[in-house]
Design brief:
By secondary structure, the protein is α/β, with parallel strands linked by helices. It contains 20 helices and 18 strands. Helices cover about 35% and strands about 15% of the residues. Keywords: Chaperone, Signal.
Length: about 575
């Protein structure tokens, strides 16, 4: 009886002193951070200390107690409400005192998210465990700090905590690998999934220089050494991300044991765990390595990769874009019309792959009935519209459908390459004309209409054609006469051009001619219209198209010797 009494007194005293000590523990001091520390600073401190005092790594006396203390400190400071309560009352529950190692109301368990460097997170209950991760996210696991040393309620023993923190057992695809959560399932695969398998390329110095540096493709790269725990788990996450972004990026791994010089030159040598980088074109047309420091889970890594995909397409308001001078550049222009609020991933990838060959734009539109969309001749969304440098517009593709990202990028790349060939052919034709002293007569479009036939232009000569043969004939005549009329332009009283010359494809823009003729001159293969925008009047020449006859007509227009009629309506290009 006496012994029992002594034992009871001893245990009570011990509990009293432990409680008194607990009330004096400061979580900020435990983690070694300032009271105004950010969550990022708290996470970094926790990660560093948890590795230092983890029982599987630190066998010193008191290491396990210190590890528990660190976890409890982080549990308070990582939760804004608990942190606020502690700062106010000295206790995370809103009452005086700081409980050391208190498991809360969850049966002695704390729930841990398998995170990346500096991103390990704790939550408070099984309900949160069920909701974390999600599709593409990393499953959580739980373990007891104060309970038995055996397996936890989720079948996970203390001996496995450290290995699973960095990705589970080598070669495993079990429930802690960060994918579907079903044992034996591979990353990116679901029952009935048809996604093609993704493999990681081994990257050497030669491959890095030849296939990665400034080649236009975004890469997701893993640097590791075989002795590091967790690299296979990280590799599996990378495969899942690559599977979901297949075609938008490539993946590779650099073994720093076999490629020490490359790792040293790039400053990517792994330390205690593997490192992941994105070869990014986000801020420059020259690529650069950006390190990922988020959670080791597919969802945040995918978001990081998407954020670092190229952004060489300029987001525009289609209404304002219409009045922009897309035709003044040497490169052809392409614009994507879609309902997306941000530039689609596929277009961002294409904008870098073809960055040196096109000017890329994209615009958010909602309906094909939108007047600005109809004006471009688009009848289905999403659509790609392109312009050659001479102002010639082409609807490259409307009602685009894709079965997967990789095939879409390949198909649209082929489409752009075909348009580029057409652009080069047009540029070559223009260069030949320049070499012979010929001046190219621009094709009238909705984008250059104001510049060529707007109210600032006294007289606009429009050569309308319905065949390529007639176009060439009109262009040759107008080009010759435009050279002769230069003296008149230079001698104009206000110093501005008194006359401008342009061509119109009447087979595509028939409604434009209705402003001058009720039938739109449909009976003619070609017609010449002299239009005075300021007065809203015009005169038409329907005779034989020879240089002499046309020169006589234009001379009469400039000398006021020809009668002008009022237009039926204001001519508008659609």
């Amino acid at each position: 009886m006496g012994n029992r009494l002594v034992l009871w007194i001893f245990l009570s005293a011990l509990l009293f002193f432990l409680t008194m000590e607990a009330t004096t523990i400061d979580p900020y001091k435990v983690l070694g951070v300032e009271r105004n520390a950010s969550q990022r600073e708290i996470q970094k401190a926790f990660h560093k200390l948890s590795l230092q005092y983890h029982p599987d790594k630190n066998k010193n006396t008191g290491a396990q107690a210190k590890f528990s203390e660190i976890n409890n400190a982080y549990e308070i400071l990582s939760d804004e409400e608990k942190r606020k309560n502690y700062d106010t009352y000295g206790d995370e529950k809103g009452s005086p005192g700081f409980g050391a190692g208190s498991p809360g109301d969850h049966g002695g368990y704390t729930y841990f998210t398998n995170g990346g460097p500096g991103k390990n997170q704790y939550t408070n209950g099984p309900s949160e465990w069920q909701s974390m991760g999600g599709q593409g996210g990393s499953k959580s696991f739980s373990f007891s700090f104060g309970g038995p040393s055996g397996p936890s309620s989720f079948g996970f023993g203390m001996d496995d905590i450290f290995s699973n923190l960095f990705g589970g057992k080598p070669g495993g695809w079990g429930q802690f690998s960060g994918f579907s959560g079903s044992t034996g399932s591979r990353p990116g695969s679901q029952p009935g999934s048809r996604s093609s398998p993704v493999s990681i390329s081994a990257i050497s110095s030669q491959v890095y220089k030849k296939e990665i540096v400034d080649q236009g493709m975004t890469w997701l790269l893993l640097s590791y050494t075989p002795s590091l725990k967790g690299h296979q788990h990280v590799e599996s996450i990378i495969k899942e991300v690559a599977s979901s972004l297949q075609g938008a990026l490539k993946i590779g791994s650099i073994n720093c044991e076999t490629e020490p010089s490359l790792c040293k030159d790039l400053d990517i040598y792994p330390r205690r765990m593997p490192r992941v980088f994105v070869y990014s074109y986000k801020v420059s047309e020259r690529g650069s390595l950006v390190e990922y420091d988020g959670d080791w889970a597919a969802k945040p890594l995918k978001m990081f990769c998407q954020d670092h995909l190229p952004r060489f397409s300029k987001r525009v308001d289609l209404k304002h874009f219409e009045s922009s001078t897309v035709t003044v550049h040497k490169l052809p222009s392409v614009v994507l019309l879609s309902t997306k609020k941000d530039t689609p991933v596929i277009w961002r990838v294409l904008s870098r792959l073809h960055h040196n060959h096109f000017l890329f734009y994209d615009a958010e539109v909602h309906e094909v009935s939108d007047p600005t969309v109809k004006k471009l001749g688009v009848d289905a969304l999403p659509a790609i519209v392109g312009w050659l440098s001479n102002g010639e517009k082409h609807v490259l593709k409307a009602g685009i459908t894709i079965k997967d990202m990789k095939s879409a990028i390949n198909e649209l790349s082929a489409l752009l390459e075909g348009f580029e060939k057409k652009s080069k052919k047009a540029a070559s034709s223009q260069a030949k004309k320049s070499a012979t002293g010929e001046k190219q007569i621009p094709l009238l479009t909705e984008f250059n209409f104001d510049a060529l036939c707007g109210e600032k232009t006294p007289v606009c000569i429009i050569g309308a054609f319905r065949s390529s043969k007639e176009r060439k004939k009109l262009e040759s005549i107008l080009n010759t006469l435009s050279q002769k009329s230069l003296s008149r332009q230079q001698n104009s009283a206000d110093g501005r051009d008194s006359i401008s010359y342009t061509l119109l494809d009447a087979s595509k823009k028939a409604s434009f001619l209705n402003a001058f003729d009720k039938a739109g001159f449909k009976s003619l293969d070609k017609v010449l219209v002299a239009y005075k925008p300021r007065r809203g009047t015009f005169a038409a020449f329907e005779g034989e198209m020879t240089t002499e006859e046309v020169e006589g007509f234009i001379g009469s227009v400039l000398n006021g010797d020809i009668r002008f009629s009022k237009t039926r309506q204001k001519p508008v290009l659609k």
